[in-house]
Write a structure and sequence with these properties.
- The structure holds two protein chains of two kinds.
- Chain A is mostly helical.
- Chain A is globular and about 35 Å long.
- Chain A contains three helices and one strand.
- Chain A has helices at 2-5, 16-34, 53-61, and one strand at residues 41-46.
- By secondary structure, chain B is mainly alpha-helical.
- Chain B has helices at 13-16, 22-31, 43-56, 66-69, 86-99, 150-164, 168-182, 186-192, and strands spanning 107-110, 124-127, 134-139.
- The two termini of chain B are 31 Å apart.
- The chains are: A mainly alpha, B mainly alpha.
- At the A-B interface, helix 1, helix 2, strand 1 and helix 3 of A face helix 5, strand 3, helix 6, helix 7 and helix 8 of B.
């Protein structure tokens, strides 16, 4: 990612809960760059039985 | 660590039961082979091999296993394919049709294995018209569950690596779109998707 968008400034400090909410929002926007009508995105995730809790929260939020 | 990591791969019957004749062990191993193309490709191939083993009357430990398990099939199993996923592929195509009506019908999907991944972990796709759909794939791992977002990172690393190979003009388009979308929080996605 750094190669693509370059160095980025540190983000503002937030409480853990707020930080989690911000990360989900930012991930959603990140995904929105790739998943567009002109170039839909297929996200292929294998072996879901080993899903980690953080990713589950992230995907559930979508 | 014990034998757990290897349980996915069938062990030879003879290692479990010492007095199983070699041909039977070889046949069972072939029936239980991990990938479909290593198994008997037709009932006839299995029947011929097993029949030969029995008729031969040599179910002794002296026989060489290869004799009973090395039948190569003429059916030409296509290992580049996902099996039994027609319904899921149909759902995926319908989703593409719905999201992208202008170009939807021109997709040509061919689920396949990339050389670097396990058979089910990814699909490649080709299409007949200009722009390609994007594809990101990741595989969750029992031993990486304590690394948050490891699989999403894997998926998007692959996608971004592919983008980095594009022309400077295209790359600039992606760079602008990402910077605009992420705003002051770009650092968060660099942390999730490093290098």
């Amino acid at each position: 990612m750094k190669l693509l968008i370059g160095e980025q400034p540190p983000v503002q400090e937030l409480s853990p809960q707020q930080a989690q909410g911000r990360l989900q929002l930012v991930f959603r926007r990140f995904l929105g760059v790739f998943a567009r009508p002109e170039h839909p995105l297929a996200l292929f995730l294998d072996d879901l039985q080993w899903l980690d809790a953080a990713t589950l929260d992230m995907l559930a939020d979508l | 660590m014990g034998p757990l990591p290897y349980c996915e791969t069938a062990r030879a019957a003879r290692r479990a039961v010492k007095d199983v004749p070699v041909p039977v062990s070889a046949i069972v191993s072939k029936l239980l082979a991990k990938t479909a193309e290593e198994r008997y490709q037709t009932a006839a191939a299995w029947s011929a091999t097993s029949g030969a083993a029995l008729l031969h009357g040599k179910l002794s430990t002296e026989s060489t296993p290869s004799r009973w398990a090395n039948t190569t099939s003429p059916t030409g199993f296509d290992s580049e394919k996902l099996y039994g996923r027609e319904r899921e592929i149909g759902t995926l195509l319908a989703a593409f049709d719905a999201s992208s009506p202008a170009v939807g019908r021109s997709w040509c999907w061919s689920p396949a294995i990339p050389a670097s991944a396990s058979p089910r972990s990814s699909m490649s796709c080709t299409r007949r018209c200009a722009a390609a759909p994007l594809f990101a794939s990741g595989k969750f791992d029992q031993y990486k569950r304590d690394i948050p977002y490891a699989t999403l990172a894997q998926a998007f690393q692959g996608l971004i690596r592919a983008l980095l190979g594009k022309s400077d003009a295209e790359l600039a388009g992606w760079r602008d779109a990402l910077r605009e979308a992420l705003g002051p929080n770009g650092r968060l996605m660099i942390d999730v998707v490093p290098n």
